[in-house]
Structure formats: structure tokens, C-alpha cells
Design a protein that fits this description.
By secondary structure, the protein is of the alpha+beta class. The protein is built from 13 helices and 17 strands. Helices cover 22% and strands 21% of the residues. The strands form three sheets. Strands 1, 8, 9, 10, 11, 12, 13, 14, 15, 16 and 17 form an eleven-stranded mixed β-sheet that branches. Strands 4-5-7-6 form a four-stranded antiparallel β-sheet.
Length: 500
């Protein structure tokens, strides 16, 4: 995430592969081009309805990036390195200042992407409440420079700034996107190949092709997106031909799809049990240890996920190929206390249909250990604010550990430190904060990985998080569809080359 480093960035940091494999796609941002016709509209079923009116600063950011609406100064390539997007190049002036050179591009409202517009957009992101996860604990200042450049200065050295700026929550929008309240409206104000033209609440959205997109004219003429929280309904919509692409197909529905329409992708997503370390029964580290000891994860991958997952090993899973060889044992764990019939509230969401089943398994295991469990399941948009405010004792969460910035330290800072903006576990531990800060200070790629694993060991030692499984994501793709963008970070789905 952010950094206190005094060392100079090694160029290899932004070139070092984080993941094995490549994007499973038949096209990319630049593979579209003008098809010579209007093309067919794509019908897409998404799992998560907008939770924040399509604000780019929270969970809705990935909805916008997956539909090809928004983009930032940089993006992530197949190896997890920072790659050009609205910025065609960048250089580090000193340990706290970077210069980004913009490409020629226009916003969807017809205005030019200028240094002043980009600087203003990033400034709005820094002022958002709560702060975007990619900026958790980070202070940056963006100003227009000379010759089509933007200069970004951070309060402390930040060796992974180009990676950070690839976050969907740092998408660049035109000045018209920002009202007097400071909220950002991405409808018709972004820069991607598709433009949102209509939003029907949490039900659907209509997108048109943005013909002036800098990366080439998209091959599809538009997108009809439906938000279908029920996983079975998404799979049925694909099977009956109502949609062309269905994301997050439930494991239980995978066998009902023809093999030709079923794609599974290894991701950096880990499903974990988060225990509220700030209040309630799990404020006691002994009861957290008792809960952790009660959980048997061995059967989850095979039984609940039917082989589309690996047993939980840590915050980082097998898709982060370097992690296994560097993993360390958790440190400072407390001995298990006696639950004594203490009542706990366990919550999860049903947008990912395996999660309620996982929660039911966890419920039985915790009750066997002596807890009394009250299970609560809602749709994610109706659950997020309560989870972030610590209103549950335990929470089953599926979290992509590299989605916010691509930096392995980012998820540690945002999810497990005192200042973290996505700290559902409500963890505030001085040893954890110290270990995460050391990782943030490290610019050398191998050293940063080592420091991240040391911090992971500190976090796991608190028992505020119990990794359960590392997921493979199943996407349903119609046989006539080409160029779907499937990546380990789950940031992309539709691009200029996606068509039917």
C-alpha cells in the first residue's frame, strides 16, 4: 500500500511478476478497432448490484471497470505490473514525486483529458469519505505540470505509486462528474470504451459504445447489464440464452453448464472468517483462538467448492506464486479460551452463493466448540456498512487480496491496520501496524515480498482472520462470445475486443 521508504525505487519492482499465467482472454484494451459496423450488444449478468450509486470510491468501482467504463492513469498487465492507460509513461523525479505523461484522450462528455482535469479528479478521490482502499493512510497531491504531464507528490515515499494508481477506485472522471457534494457521478463522464447512459437502480444499467475511445472503437455496440444477486438465476440466464456473459457462476451450477460455456480462472481471492477484535466476545484473543481452533477448512475446498478452490493457507493463496515459499508460521497466538455458550453473530452475503453454505459449515463447527451462533445472511449492498462499522462478531468474506492496487502490502494496510479503510475485523494491533509499516518501507521486490509475509504472520497470529479457501472463479460465457477478459484480479470482463 503506501510507503515510508527512504530508498530509491528499483525499476524491477514494477516489472516483477506477482502471478503465474496470463489473462484468459481473446482480446485486450487495444484489440478492438473499428469493426466497420455497429456490432451486437452484449448482455451481461453481474453478481453485485451497485451498493453506493456507482461511486468509484468503494465496492462499485470494480463494476465500472469490469464493464469497460472507467480507467485510471495506469492498469495492471497479465503479470501484475503497472502498464500504461491514460498515462502513456511515467518517471520518478525523487523519492516522493512522480511525473506522469498523459496520452491524447477525451472524456465521454466530449471534453479533453487534460492535466488539470486529471489532477482535479485525483484530488476528489483523496477527499472522499471514507477514503478509497487504495489510498488508505496515503496522502498525495496531484498538480498539472508542463507538456501534458501530471505531477503527483506523496507525503512519504511511495515506491508502488504506479501500481496504486491502477486501482479502479482511482478512475479518472471529467470535471462534470463532481457535484457540490463532492460525490462522483460516472454516468457519461469516464474515459473507457463503454459509456453508462442509464441506470435502473440496483436492477440494470444500459451502456453505449464510446466511439472516441483512445484505445480504438469497441467491437460491441453497447452493453445491457443486469444485476442478478442470485447465482442460480445468473446461471439460468446464461443457459437459456438471456445473457451472453454471467459472472461468478455458483459452483453448484457449474455442472449444469455446457463445458464450452464454462471458464474457471485462478484468482487471488481468499475466503476468510473475520473475527471482530474490537468489541463483543472476540475482543478476547483467547476466544478468537478458540474459534480458529474449531474451524476445519480441509473439507470446504472439496465439499462446498467442489474442487474449484484450494484449502486456506494464508492471506495470499496459490495464485500469488511467490508466497508459498516465503510463508512463515503465525506468531504470538494466544491459547484457546472456553466459549462457555457465548452468543455470537455470524454474517455473510449471498451474492457469492457458496458463502452462505460456508457460513453454515462454520456455524456448526463453532457451535460444536461451545459457541451459540446467530447466522445472518443478506445481499452485500445491504450488509457492507454494518460490517465496516463492526456490528457483527464474525464475518465470512471473499476478498481479492491484490484487487486494490496489485501491491501485496496494500490489502494488509487496508484490512488489518488501525487506519485501514476496509478493516472488517476491526483489528488494531501495534505489532501488526509495525510489521505492515516495515513492508511499506521496502522497495526491493524480493524484500517487499519477505516483509509482506512477515506481516502476514503477525496478522494471522492475532486470530482476527482465519483463511478458509482460495477460490477459482467460474464465468459463464456464451459459445458465440469472443474476447472476454478474465484476470486474476477480477478487474476486467468486457473490453474493446469483446463481441458476439
Amino acid at each position: 500500500m503506501h510507503s515510508l521508504a527512504r530508498t530509491r525505487l528499483l525499476p524491477a519492482l514494477l516489472l516483477a511478476p506477482l502471478l503465474a499465467g496470463c489473462f484468459a482472454s481473446g482480446g485486450d484494451r487495444s484489440s478492438g478497432g473499428d469493426t466497420g459496423g455497429d456490432g451486437s450488444r452484449l448482455r451481461v449478468a453481474l453478481a453485485f448490484p451497485p451498493a453506493e450509486n456507482l461511486s468509484p470510491y468503494g465496492a462499485d468501482a470494480t463494476i465500472l471497470s469490469r464493464l469497460g467504463v472507467t480507467e485510471g492513469l495506469t492498469t495492471l498487465d497479465a503479470n501484475g505490473s503497472a502498464a500504461p492507460a491514460l498515462a502513456q509513461s511515467w518517471r520518478r523525479e525523487n523519492d516522493r514525486t512522480w511525473e506522469f505523461t498523459l496520452r491524447e484522450a477525451v472524456f465521454q462528455d466530449g471534453t479533453d483529458v487534460t492535466p488539470s482535469a486529471v489532477a482535479a479528479s485525483l484530488t476528489h478521490a483523496t477527499e472522499a469519505e471514507p477514503a478509497p482502499a487504495a489510498l488508505s493512510g496515503v496522502t498525495l497531491t496531484a498538480k498539472a505540470g508542463d507538456g501534458g504531464t501530471v505531477r503527483i507528490t506523496t507525503a512519504e515515499p511511495d515506491p508502488v505509486l504506479p501500481l496504486r494508481l491502477s486501482s479502479p477506485s482511482l478512475a479518472v472522471l471529467s470535471p462534470k462528474a463532481y457535484g457540490k457534494t463532492g460525490k462522483a457521478d460516472p454516468v457519461g463522464t469516464a474515459t473507457g470504451p463503454f459509456e453508462v447512459t442509464k441506470v435502473n437502480g440496483s436492477t440494470s444499467a444500459t451502456l453505449a459504445r464510446f466511439d472516441a475511445y483512445w484505445g480504438g472503437r469497441a467491437q460491441a455496440s453497447g452493453i445491457d447489464a443486469r444485476f442478478i444477486a442470485d447465482g442460480t438465476a445468473r446461471a439460468n440466464a446464461l443457459r437459456t440464452g438471456e445473457v451472453d456473459i454471467a459472472e461468478a457462476v455458483p459452483v453448484a451450477q457449474a455442472a449444469t453448464l455446457d463445458r464450452a460455456t464454462r471458464r474457471d480462472t485462478a484468482t487471488t481471492r481468499t475466503t476468510s472468517l473475520l473475527l471482530n477484535a474490537a468489541s463483543g466476545p472476540f475482543e478476547d484473543p483467547g476466544l478468537r483462538a478458540a474459534a480458529r481452533a474449531a474451524i476445519d477448512t480441509s473439507a470446504l475446498a472439496e465439499d462446498v467448492y467442489e474442487g474449484y478452490a484450494d484449502a486456506g493457507a494464508g492471506i495470499y493463496g496459490p495464485a500469488v506464486t511467490w508466497a508459498e515459499g516465503k510463508r512463515k508460521q503465525p506468531v504470538g497466538r494466544s491459547g484457546a479460551g472456553r466459549p462457555g455458550g457465548r452468543t455470537i453473530t455470524l454474517a455473510t452475503y449471498d451474492n457469492r452463493p457458496e458463502l452462505p453454505e460456508v457460513a453454515q459449515v462454520i456455524e456448526r463447527q463453532l457451535e460444536k466448540a461451545g459457541f451459540k451462533v446467530e447466522l445472518e445472511v443478506r445481499e452485500y449492498s445491504r450488509l457492507e456498512s454494518d460490517a465496516l462499522e463492526g456490528r457483527f462478531d464474525a464475518f465470512v468474506l471473499a476478498r481479492n487480496s491484490l484487487v486494490d492496487t496489485g501491491d501485496p502490502v496494500a490489502v494488509l494496510a487496508s484490512d488489518y491496520t488501525c487506519r485501514g479503510g476496509y478493516n472488517i475485523a476491526q483489528l488494531c494491533d501495534k505489532d501488526v501496524d509495525r510489521a505492515v509499516a516495515r513492508a511499506e518501507e521496502t522497495a526491493d521486490p524480493a524484500g517487499r515480498q519477505d516483509a509482506a509475509m512477515t506481516a502476514e504472520a503477525e496478522i494471522l497470529g492475532t486470530d482476527a482472520v482465519v483463511p478458509l479457501v482460495h477460490q477459482r472463479i467460474i464465468t459463464g460465457v456464451g459459445t458465440s462470445v469472443k474476447g472476454v477478459l478474465l484476470d486474476p484480479y477480477e478487474r476486467t470482463l468486457v473490453g474493446t475486443g469483446t463481441r458476439r
